[in-house]
Amino acid sequence: MPDGRDYLIFRPDDVDLARSPLRATLGAETYVLGAFNPGLARLPNGNLLLMVRVAEALREPVARGHARAIRWTPDGYVVDAHPLDRVTMTDPRQFDVRGGSHRLLALTSLSWLLPVELDAEGREVVAVHYDRTIAPAAEHQHYGIEDARMTRIGDTWYMTACAVSAERHSTILYTSTDAMAWTCHGIVLDHQNKDMILFEGKVAGRFMALTRPLGELYFAPPPGSPFVGGPSINLAGSPDALHWKPDDHPFIRPRAGSAANMKVGGGSQPILTDAGWLMLYHGVETRETVGIYRTFWALLDRDEPHRILRLEDADPLIEADPTLTADIAHQLYLPTEVVFTTGIADGGADYIVASGEADLACRITRIPKARFA
């Protein structure tokens, strides 16, 4: 059982690929590229649940002059082949397919979701629920399901995830009454959007969520603006968690001179404290292909969450820690300066925070509540 305030709790080698949903129909050898970016929720029995993103990749991503990618179909999983002279492979997570009118990507892995149950303190894995695996099951998911976020509101757990396909890049919603048996409600945001996360509670009787729309074009801020153009965190509201209206107010944007000057995006589900809504989010500093990912935090007004009461983007709350992955460094495929926070739970005097470390493994960080005073 790990001690201390920072540790890895689940790693690629902890996944039993013999029980992978791809195993029955995919006629190719695979491995776990990463087991990371876990949503976090408290179960009815008091234990914690990680909803782990398992990125499963081909052992031979290049064969017979082609780059290969896995795709779900109604009849099972298949391998697509793209001629090497038409692809650009500079990022280990994806490759560009040239020749179209728009930038086109293919993924080097297909992701599915694995529920991993921890003890109440988040220090020990007590069960891995392969019978509750969530895998692609529709055309809008045929390249995978990524980066789940879980929120409990009343007696219902809500989980959002990113569905990836050539058809669209969208956000899908699941609900559950026990955080184990999930019902998929399909697409709730029908445009390219990452990191949609429901607040853990309603505001004026309405569901609230963080969103982060993406695009290929951003307009320049006026000269002298404290902000930098690029992906930012927005807010949206809904009467039923299915139909969402974007909030008119601007929200958290990349700021010039900060350590989040490339882009920002949602991290943990916002939780209500005595001081307001506490949210952890990621900010990215420009550096080579991937950038440096860190975790920052903000405090929002309880009745008008677009009003930011406090924003901490100078001193990171969580940074990547290469010592955590030292014993699995041979499995790293990205720079180690990536930490991606995806969930938070009450741990008494501490908050228990779940993150993906280096797009490789699941990390738990215990943060004293006094840190946010």
TrEMBL record:
Top-rank lineage group of the source organism: Bacteria
Family affiliation: Belongs to the glycosyl hydrolase 130 family.
Keyword Hydrolase among UniProt keywords: yes
MF annotations from Gene Ontology: glycosyltransferase activity; hydrolase activity, acting on glycosyl bonds
Keywords: Glycosidase, Glycosyltransferase, Hydrolase, Transferase
The species this protein was found in: Alterirhizorhabdus solaris
Name assigned to this protein: Glycosidase
Pfam families from the UniProt entry: Glyco_hydro_130 (PF04041)
